[in-house]
Amino acid sequence: MAAMSRARTKARKRALDILFESEARGDDPLAVLVHRQQTDDAPPVPDYAAMLVRGVVEHRERIDQLLAEHAEGWSVARMPAVDRALLRIGVFELLWVDEIDDPVAISEAVELARSLSTDNSPRFLNGVLGRLADIAPHLRATR
């Protein structure tokens, strides 16, 4: 079980890398994903990472709408890019990945923010994802 957890943590980090890179370059995330999957000199892209990137892309409009509604005092565009990508992954896992428990999705996003973003990011992500987790059963029912 712990090995699967570590593998998913690495996959989340890889998905974050792809989403962040695509936004920084103004490229399509799916094109970056395909390029990374075909490049030998880059770390491999686990299946779970690819699924996260595809899911975030597929549901991005709804994810960003939820973030805009629940990120108190922040527009999606004003968020640090790493936080924005982590929140998108977290919301996707909360609402569309049934085998991931809500607390796991939240704690994984918070831990990545702790190591990769600003000092305030873990608390910010925890707050936004926590608010969404509180209403996740309703949101899942209307997806």
In short:
Helix content is 76%, strand content 0%. It is mostly helical and 143 residues long. It has one domain: Orthogonal Bundle (N-utilizing Substance Protein B Homolog, Chain A), CATH 1.10.940.10.
Search tags:
143 residues; mainly alpha; 8 helices; globular
What is the 3D shape? globular
**Fraction of residues in helix:** over 70%
The CATH class is Mainly Alpha
N-C termini distance:
30 Å
CATH topology label? N-utilizing Substance Protein B Homolog, Chain A
Strand content: under 5%
Low-confidence runs (pLDDT<50, min 5 residues)? none
Mean pLDDT over all positions: 93
Number of helices: 8
The biggest beta sheet reads:
none
The beta-strand count equals 0
Structural description of this entry:
The protein is mostly helical and 143 residues long. The chain has one domain: N-utilizing Substance Protein B Homolog, Chain A (Orthogonal Bundle). It contains eight helices and no strands. It has helices at 2-25, 29-38, 47-58, 60-70, 81-96, 102-116, 121-134, 136-141. Helix 1 packs across helix 3. The longest helix has 24 residues, at 2-25. It starts with a helix and ends with a helix. The relative contact order is 0.13.
Layout of strands and helices, then pairs:
Layout: H1 2-25, H2 29-38, H3 47-58, H4 60-70, H5 81-96, H6 102-116, H7 121-134, H8 136-141
